[in-house]
Amino acid sequence: MSAPQSETSLSDHKSIALIGARGAGKSRLSRKLGKKLNLPVFSTDTQICFAANGKTIQQIVAEEGWPGFRQREFDILSKIAEMESSIIDCGGGILVEAPENPGLQESFSQRKASILKAHCTVVYIKRPMSWLLDKVKETASRPDLKGEPYEDLLNRRLPWYEQVADITLEADATGTKDLLAAILEHPLLQSRTNISQTITGQ
């Protein structure tokens, strides 16, 4: 597992945002990280559904299309990122803009990337392609991604995660416990970890 260095310090950021493909393990890791650092945890997908009066992602996409969902995602991310320090569990398409024309391909979301870079330390949980493909087969809770082969979608999106990340964790088959330790030991997060230990007396 490796993580590139950066000259950015955590003091420049309010929150820690976890990004990565569906099935990478962001949600569980976010909860563990929030508990360890004594910070609130916000899932963008959960907040989107809450703001839509409890509608599921499938219902939102069916009624508003992917462009409507991505706009809701932008609105929620904007709101959460500007709040006090928190852990943000980002949906797999957080760096995606949906095309207005269903026949066109999705594109990189510069506006959402800018929010993440301005307000967060961005941690990319990087899993092998085979891992991600296996994980998506295990879940049927998400709407169809336009019928596109998931491997093609990943090949397009994975470089976007690396482009935005401050920290990239080469997770391979690493479990949540080891990923949590790797994040907390990273130089960018040392000041936050030290503060947490002082507050909790650990």
What overall form do the CA principal axes indicate?
Answer: globular
- Determine the CATH topology: Rossmann fold
Biggest sheet descriptor: 5 strands, parallel
Please work out how many helical segments DSSP would assign.
Answer: 8
Based on the coordinates given, report the CATH architecture: 3-Layer(aba) Sandwich
Task: Kindly give the count of domains.
Answer: 1
Structural class by helix and strand composition:
alpha/beta
Distance between the termini: 26 Å
Q: In CATH's first tier, which class applies?
A: Alpha Beta
Q: What fraction of residues sit in β-strands?
A: 5-15%
Q: What is the chains' assembly state?
A: single chain
Key features of this structure:
disordered N terminus; two-stranded antiparallel sheet; disordered C terminus; 7 strands; globular; alpha/beta
